[in-house]
Fold this sequence. Notes:
Helix content is 32%, strand content 17%. The chain has three domains: 6-124 and 144-171 and 178-183 and 194-379, TIM Barrel; 399-601, Rossmann fold (3-Layer(aba) Sandwich), CATH 3.40.50.1700; 646-759, Sandwich (Immunoglobulin-like). By secondary structure, it is of the alpha/beta class. The protein contains 23 helices and 27 strands. A six-stranded mixed beta sheet has the order 11-16-15-14-12-13. Strands 4-3-2-1-10 form a five-stranded parallel beta sheet. Bound molecules: beta-D-glucopyranose. The site of beta-D-glucopyranose has 6 residues, from loops.
Amino acid sequence: MKNTIGIFVLCSISLVQGQHKKSMNTNATIDQKVEALLQQMTLEEKVGQMNQYNGFWEVTGPAPQSGDAQRKYEHLKKGWVGSMLTVRGTKEVRAVQKIAVEETRLGIPLIIGFDVIHGYKTISPIPLAEAASWDMEAIKRSAQMAADEASASGINWTFGPNVDIARDARWGRVMEGAGEDPFLGSCVATARVKGFQGETKADLAKANTLAACAKHFAGYGFVEAGKEYNTVDMGNATLFNTVLPPFEAAQKAGVRTFMNAFNILNGVPATGSTFLQRSLLKGKWGFDGFVVTDWASIREMMNHGFAQDGAEASQKAVTAGADMDMESHLYVKELVGLVNNGKVKESLIDDAVRRILRVKFELGLFDDPYRYCDPKREKQTVGSAAQKAIALDMAKKSIVLLKNENQLLPLPQSGKKIALIGALAADDNSPLGSWRIAADDHTAVSVVTGMQRYKGNTLVYAKGADLTVGKTTFIDELVFNTTDTSGFVEAIQVAQNSDIVVMVLGEHGFQTGEGRSRTQLDLPGVQQALLEAVYAVNPNIVLVLQNGRPLALPWAAEHIPAIVEAWHLGTTSGDAIASVLYGEYNPSGKLPMTFPRNVGQCPIYYNYHNTGRPANTDNNVFWSHYSDVDKSPQWPFGFGLSYTQFTYSKPLMKKNVYSKGESIEVEVTVTNTGSRAGVEIVQLYLQDIAASLSRPVKELKGFERIELQSGASKTVTFTLNDSSLGFYDNEGTYHVEPGFFNVFIGTNSQEVKAVQFELR
Ligand code: BGC
């Protein structure tokens, strides 16, 4: 009987597939196939498509015999699982896919998800670092590279990009986004989506692309006090103008999935938010892909006090538009009953299943469910030299030069004694950063190894001090309080006997990322003491920072002559750092997040609103500031130096009055006045001086990455239009208002030259 049904269903599907081939890849034919399949499905099978399990057994070994894994295995065989995550490798994916395709009644293939956040096996810089490149082509290539590797390993869906705007460096996940700015964040979101999925919808059907996922929808980057998983409470002005634009950009770029978020937003858990998922995303924005929940976030709605039990949580989540349940195990348990007792309409289930099936069809999984499971391709692609070359290019472009007094950098290539100090200098694991589940541990090039390739100098390494004690893994809580200073003596000796000291200090890769919020933004452990002890004997220090968030290092900013922000740069970290230190690559990165002077300034960001008392005009205390620290940040958004210098002309506009709808052009000429070629990121900011809602003092609205030979000039023309000039009101309606605008152009958000125009 089972076989007969199987053959019948197979025939009807292949009939639909036949129709699909005739009218080539249009949405309509995919929708027809989806519809035909949906008609065959029982309620249980539909709900099954909405159920996602984390990999639960070593699939190349024996099938699980008991417990949770056995239950999940049974569900898989019954066709009650639509997706699995973190199963990886062609062999492993083929094994689970085989069960879904060959052992279930309808043979619907699984969609296989994975956190391909900054690379798969070959690890790219953390996303915050990549954003510092302001190079959208490089970012796209890096995502393409990751998609190529992951898809060669059986995966067809990544849980990225993370497009959460974040302003508080205490939050551990700032490493995972593109920083604090919605305009830069939107550009990066677009680049990443296209990198993962390809330029067009048809590219999704290629075997070397992945479906992307814009996350976490929405507001997660604004957890109170930067504390992980915390409450989010924000006004609509911030929601519409700051948080949502990168999500909308991802939707416009064609992202096929969204992930909702752990947090409550103004009292409503994002997972249960009809406003976010149904009204805005699927309604106003017209998104026709599907929404996956964050890990167990349906279940967590009970902790939020939003649902009494699993049934209520499921009812609220599905009603709000959460299509696939990641690891709450509630949809599979509750939804059939909820439909049968009339609490959930079956049309809601159908809507979710249609969306999920649509993406599976688009990926080509129904044409060949094993298309990502070619071991030959896996062997050739994963970890190849070509992948590493892309990661290296990205890593160099991500480095930001923060200070370079007396041109201490670049280092001379010969005849010098160089001391290399710090546990991170020899670390080949930490630079892989936080989201690197598929990478092999200890596969990053350390700074020691990178610098050793330059043979002209004498290089002596001393650790000085460990960074942390305790286990450093993805899931273990780290213990930071290293107090052991016994290695200082050796480090001091080595520094004393050297011409130049390179110190590599910062955070371990696992001190950032999910669950890694901090209350301090200093150098963990005894690293600050080590820095000061070495400085006392040899102040000729190049400080290389490795960290996943802005740090507050006022002492170093004041005393250390050269500072290089080198983040967690991934597999090729040490090579990229050495090539910048030795001047083979002239640094070009610019900060995508403001660096504070101390943690008390957080959240600190460049596009703030003026207060009623923005400046001290009467020489008294009654103005907006802290009384114990300078009002400015340590290093502003958009800041980054080069080994050459650039000068800017005054921005030029042909007219100073424009009508609504007209394109507005602003020109600036940039000249390389230094002695070597370099890349500059020319930035344009806008201020709507008076509007119906208070507007920020500056908002990034354009940038261009230009390369100039020594002595050369280039005129850059920016075009502003309605999409640059307007803003959302508190109801989410976009307005462009007449009035006066300031245009600021410069090398970072602070050092700018201004011009004004009027919009009528
Ligand atoms: C994270 C998501 C991630 C998911 C699956 C969650 O804890 O918040 O960003 O995609 O786990 O690993």
